[in-house]
Amino acid sequence: ITESIRKVGGKLLEKVELFDLYKGKQIGEGKKSLAFSLSYRSGEGSLDGAEVAEIQIKIISHLKEQFRADIREG
Asked: pTM of the full predicted structure?
């Protein structure tokens, strides 16, 4: 999943870090809850919120399609 996020995120996605993994009754049998931290950086100047939002939408769409992920943003 981490590699998939990196590929979709492209050159502006500097770092992907899995910081939490939970398995338990609340999640459901055979499922996991994963939490990632994503860091963005451009060598050409400041990134604006719209640029980052566009990348995140692509990543979320890919995760839903590829892994049937349910996304909780926070």
From this structure: 0.88
